[in-house]
Design a protein that fits this description.
With 224 residues, the chain is mainly beta. The chain has a single domain, classed as Porin (Beta Barrel), CATH 2.40.160. Helix content is 15%, strand content 49%. The strands form two sheets. Strands 1-2-3-4-5-6-7-11 form an eight-stranded antiparallel beta barrel. 31% of the residues are buried.
Amino acid sequence: MKTIPITFIALLAFSLSVSAQNQPSRRTGFPYSNRFTLGGGISQLLLGGYNVQAEYTTKRMVFDYSHGFNIGLSGSAASLVAQDQKLNETLTSSLGIGIGYRITPTFDIRFEPKLHYYEVNYNGQAEAGSTLLTKYKTVTLGVGAYYRYYPFLRQNNALAGILIMPSVRFWPNIWSSLDNNKLTYVSKATNRTETYKAASQGFPGTNGLLANVTIGYTFGFRKN
């Protein structure tokens, strides 16, 4: 399973690198070096939460911090185990850092340790009373591939700072606060003894593959 996300990221890196190298205006330098960027993710908004991402970019390095809040994972967005057991998962908080290298002016790869706080509830089909099942934490350690697109790059005004940044990440779990990464309980929803497993990040069943688009702004009138 893990070879698929890694191969996908490698292919994305190659294609974006070729694309960037074919743009003459960006070949000779690294625009937006030594600049601060502030933005937020689209996928978090679609899941009923929100995210703030701050990063500082030098000529070759990228340093970032991100923090997501109240990201709801229900229905097909929940882990496969949660879907089967009629549970909803909420990422009440998800935070971490990234340290990256700019391979081209528009493309970078980052090393990303992250900490995630989960709350698990019955999805409303349980008997009356509290729907909370458990709370726990996970730590992921992975990589991300980011493409920086400035639609108004050629403008000599404030519009030049507007940023659209799609990304693909692979964040596998390396630890959870659940004993042996699982919880065995008698379910109010299924009336069975169930074993819930710590959720992984991203698309269900991929063990950590996710994608996002960040909308942000890079401050500083001068691009170089």
